[in-house]
Amino acid sequence: MQLARRRRRWGEGVVKGALALCALVSVATTVGIVAALLEPSIEFFREVNPLDYLTGTEWAPLFEPAHFGVVPLVVGTLSVTFWALAVSAPFGLGAAIFLSEYASPRVRKVLKPALEVLAGVPTVVYGYFALVTFTPFLRSLGLEVEIFNAFSAGIVMGVMLIPTVASLSEDAMTAVPQALRDGAYALGSDKLKVSLRIVVPAAVSGIVASYVLAVSRAIGETMIVLLAAGQLAQNTFDPFKAVETMTAFIAATAQGDVPTGSIEYKTIFAVALTLFTLTFLMNLLSIRLVRKYREVYE
Amino acid sequence: MTETHIEVRERTLASREPVFEVRDLTVSYSGVPALAGVSLDVYRRAITAFIGPSGCGKSTFIRCFNRMNDLIPSASVDGTILYHGQDLYARDVDPVAVRRLIGMVFQKPNPFPKSIFDNVAFGPRVLGMKDGLEERVEKALHDAALWDEVKDRLKEGALSLSGGQQQRLCIARALAVEPEVILMDEPASALDPISTTRIEDLMHELKREYTIVIVTHNMQQAARVADMTAFFSVEVGGDGRRTGVLVEYDETPKIFTTPADKRTEDYVTGRFG
Amino acid sequence: MKEVVIELREGRPRGRVPGRLFLAYLLLSVAVGLVLLGWLLVDVVGRGFAWVDATLFFDPPSADPQLAGARPAILGTLYLMGLLVAFTVPIGVGTAIYLEEYARKDRWYNRLLEVNIQNLAAVPSIVYGILGLAFLVRGLGLGEVLLAGAFILGLLVLPTIVIAGREAIRAVPGSIRDGAYALGATQWQVVGRQVLPAAAPGIATGTILALSRAIGETAPLLMIGALTYVPFDPTILGEFTALPVQIYNWTRQPQEDFKLLAAGAIIVLLVLLLAMNAFAIWLRNRYQKRW
Question: CA A123 to CA A224: how far, in whole Å?
Fold first, then answer.
């Protein structure tokens, strides 16, 4: 029974190489994104003072004289995001508590996928709904909203984000050991007290992570705001007025005939870089928070 | 077959031709020794059993014989195992060829989620033994005492078999590549008593052609089945580290009736373990 | 003795009202989403149902809403899906296999790869549009073409496919791999002949879910110029549009009828999504392996 000499299995090496190449595509994507954002932005910031950009309150890149203050766009984004969070934070948490602490397994089985459907509807459909139905509805209630306004977009976006908050929060809550709840029940607490005083505090880092994730998604959302929030870069937090978010600006400008290399072309990238930085930081924060709650219980 | 098991055992051990020679083997995980300084010989066409309390490194040891520990990145093997005089762990030895000659059956039956036929045919197919596939499968299933039960449903899924049948399928699968040695890591511990007896009877049949090494935590099984028995135990070092060691290795009757080491005696008489 | 029994019978009246209010809040939370979803669906279907006809499916767009159809958009979406699957699934599954079966977990570059994929999954879709605009449309000079759209959408859903693929591969028990190795199989034989086939249903389900996300994406396509008025059938290297873009376009038109037409197109899109998800769920239930 001779043991064979080691065969040169070069086929195995080829396979491993091919697979590693596949993995490199994702690296190339990231490099591409960073390069695509950085290069025109650097050129942009040679022409436009970064301080003016970051603190200027007038955004009018096509005017004479042009103004490149990004604050109105950020304000627009934050305004919409605020209303989105105002809806998704309380109701997402409520849905999560219900699913985690109150609902029977049968109810969960139906309700959870039903809520996930909310997340699966394309954003353009939400944008349509906000513009065509929700805003007129608000007007019929007597609210003096403009045709394009931050409130309508924000509320609809918030409902869309409920599953995002609910899903992550619920994960955090179900990770809380049953022993903690049992201890409280044994002392005579009711469900309300156990939920609010035991489970939610124990899951708080996961819940906050879900909020941060929702904010990140809201900041990066394009279609709802493009259709329903407007393209007027007003520097206002008034929810009933039209605003322009960073994403809406990027999308709208790119659709127009913008000559490559012009200053307006570069504004797309500068704003996109701002957007990317914001969402990137929020995502890092969210991941860190998730890791924190996972560490505690696993 | 009119020879008694005792007569077979005596005849087997009379020749004592070593298949494996283990010298001073130490297996470490991330630098920490789990099993240290083992030396013994495994004899041809005998059944050799490794017994001992849990955590003494029996499974780690048996996996050295077919280089399955290679698959664990943190594991390192020092010392020598000679297979028919050749160093099993020499740099130019092909692990794939090793595993063809030295097969393994696992504790929990692990048939592939494929048909019965494809399970047994997998080994020959990947090793390039394309010719006479159907005959190979049939012979393997015969040798594993499973043919009669599955001959009419070879295309059915392997997972539809009972636990005992699945384990015999795994044995057939190992036999299909015509190994010399079969390693069995607690082959019957997940099975019911009747299936266990069938597996033990199968082992007696198989040892006429194959060399068998088994790990078992069931002493009575070792006493029933094995020709040679090796007793392993755990040594606790000064720093609290637990390392597996070979305590005693001898013919089975001696281990169980007149063990040389007190630790062996304590274990086989049930004083601990 | 008697007092104790009476106390038990009377319960804890103090806790009742806040408990009930809290439950009401929880139920409201669940209801808000479902009510809005229902409202949206009823509204859209109500508006658009009458407009879902042969014209919508087979005619090109037009300035006259009565004559306008979404044919180029529907074809565009279908072509995009096809190209997407052809390009993204092999790369995504390849990446998943590499990370799960070949990559040594203690190497820094492999951990970086994993983190990178997680980050990419969270990048806003419009940034992928930027990538496409900068490199494909302007940089490579490819132009505002279907291929660029498919490529960008493919990159967008690549992280999703990788993550789903990894889960499916991880779900295959180690005992299967051990059994295959012990018979003398090489790594690629084990992965290709045992692990992948066992993970295939999970990978397929994940792919379909990723696809259903991709076909609803509008922003990246807008960025690479899918808005242009496209009255002809799309080709791979030609200008194109897609269903969500067409919906966006029609929604912006001043005429009321175009808004109804848009609702009709939304119905088509939603039905397509429903069909894909139902298929994915059926696939998962049918081929779910019980380890």
Answer: 6
Please, is A119 exposed, middle or buried when counting C-beta atoms within 10 Å of its C-beta (0-12, 13-18, 19+)?
middle
pTM, whole model, 2 decimals? 0.88
- The rounded distance, in Å, linking the Cα atoms of C124 and A160 is 15
Taking the C-alpha atoms of residue B105 and residue B182, their distance in angstroms, rounded to an integer, is 7
What are the tens digits of pLDDT across the range A163-177?
999 999 999 998 888
Taking a C-beta distance cutoff of 8 angstroms, is the pair C78, C149 a contact?
A: no
Alpha carbon C193 to chain centroid, angstroms: 29
The CA distance from A240 to A251, in Å, is: 22
Q: Which of A275, A117, A89 has its CA nearest to residue C125?
A: A275
Question: From the list A1, A2, A6, which residue is nearest B92 (CB)?
Answer: A6
Do the chains contact at A128 and C44, CB–CB below 8 Å?
A: yes
Question: For B87, which residue in chain A has the nearest alpha carbon?
Answer: A3
Q: Please report the ipTM that was assigned to this predicted complex.
A: 0.90
Asked if C208 contacts C276 with a C-beta cutoff of 8 angstroms, the reply is: yes
Q: Identify from B63, B65, B71 which residue to disrupt to test chain C contact, counting C C-beta atoms within 10 A and taking the largest count.
A: B71
Cβ distance A4 to B180 less than 8 Å, yes or no, reads no
pLDDT in tens, C183-199: 999 999 999 999 999 99
Residues in chain C: 291
Q: Are B18 and B213 in contact (CB under 8 A)?
A: no
Going A181 to A182 to A187 to A191, the CA torsion angle's sign is positive
Q: How far is CA C58 from CA B213, C61, C68, in A?
A: 72, 10, 9
